[in-house]
Amino acid sequence: MRAAWAAWMVVGALTASPCAVSAQNLPPRTATSADYQLEVQTIARGLENPWGLAFLPDGRALVTERPGRLRVVGRDGRLSAPVKGSPEVHAVGQGGLLGIALDPRFVENRLVYLSFAERRGSDTNSTSVFRGRLNVDATALENGRIIYRQQPAFASRLHFGSRIVFDRTGHLFVTSGDRFSQIQEAQNPANTIGKIVRITTDGAPAGAGAADWRPEIWSIGHRNMQGAALNPATGELWISNHGPRGGDGLYVVRAGRNYGWPLISWGTHYDGRPVNGGLRERQGLEQPLTYWTPSIAPSGLTFYTGDLFPAWRGNVFSGALAGQMLVRISLDGDRVTGQERLLTDLGKRFRDVQQGPDGALWLLTDSPDGELLRVAPAGR
Predict the structure, then answer these.
(1) Residues 100, 106: contact at Cβ < 8 Å?
(2) What's the distance, Cα to Cα, between the start and end of the chain in Å?
């Protein structure tokens, strides 16, 4: 399996000294799906609450750790020392170093984008986006600066989002949460609480252009979006959103639309009270393609386009934290036609899922001793 993984990668050495032991000698685990016998291999261990995953052109992986470190995972599974020059994060509650995306022109400019919880005052914080240039030996981010800050900042430990996704024009979508204590602000287009924003690579607003909205806002009425991916067939943004007690949802996000929170919900408040009198639908407010009650706490999202799982091409995959599973969702256009719950016997909280350059599914597990896992058909 290790040789098969190395075969598709460009040769190159990891120059940073490893600071965690590779898990390459662990025996693979097996799991069953309706279509395939799955082999689950632990590629790396020792990641502290890993959050976001992105693959470099040479096949190595960048992984964010919520306490504030950016790591390089080598082809042998070893972890680099923390990459220097990463932003200083406010690692409190759900906050810390979160989403990651490589510039579409990374081969030319080596730019990396990170979303994170930034301390904005003695007790306030917000979701922000940082941009830096990864040096050639992948040991440091150079010329780093913050290009976006959620407005306003609040004193909160919860609901930062945050995934970052490039669209086909080279602009950047940023998902941000409602900060938990500010749920009504998700409907206020004068701020970026509970919104998706769209910005240029320099941080300039590139939103939906809706009247009376801040110029960076793309859509409103979101709660806490921890999964986001561009649909390769349409170029549209899809997100997964945490509901309160139940009502987690999968959505297609379109410019200028209102996604309802907290005016409508398929869940309830944590104490069992109905949300807005129990209203689930209202004219002018968008509905999920599917929703999960009880909550699965979806995190990470990817569309499958590879060759290792031909029966799954066009499916979308979501990790699940509370649900401790990987969810495969089959589609007919924007219509959900079925779901399959995978890897439920591993007992892992899956924070992120990405399709790797090898066509396998790669997962991050959320724990103080988190893992990078590779999932492929048995023998592949």
Answers:
(1) no
(2) 7
Q: Is there a catalytic annotation at residue 159?
A: yes
List 90, 159, 222, 242, catalytic entry: 159
- Per-residue three-class SS string for 101-113: EECCCHHHHCEEE
3-state helix, strand, coil in the chain (%, to 5): 5, 40, 50
CA 180-185-191 angle, to 5 degrees, is: 115
What beta strand segments (E) does 48-152 contain? 50-55, 61-65, 69-73, 97-102, 111-119, 125-134, 141-149
Asked whether 218 and 171 are in contact (CB, 8 A), the reply is no
Residue 17 neighbours by CB under 8 Å, 6+ apart? 80, 81
Q: Which amino acid is at 332?
A: D
Q: Which two tokens stand for residue 235?
A: 């170029």
**pLDDT by residue for the chain (380 residues), tens digit each?**
333 343 333 323 333 333 444 455 678 999 999 999 999 999 999 999 999 999 999 999 999 999 999 999 999 999 999 999 999 999 999 999 999 999 999 999 999 999 999 999 889 999 999 999 999 999 999 999 999 999 999 999 999 999 999 999 999 999 999 999 999 999 999 999 999 999 999 999 999 999 999 999 999 999 999 999 999 999 999 999 999 999 999 999 999 999 999 999 999 999 999 999 999 999 999 999 999 999 999 999 999 999 999 999 999 999 999 999 999 999 999 999 999 999 999 999 999 999 999 999 999 999 999 999 999 999 88
Kind and range of the H or E run holding 375: strand 370-377
Q: Peptide bond before 294: cis, by omega within 30 degrees of 0?
A: yes
Chain Cα centroid distance, residue 196: 13
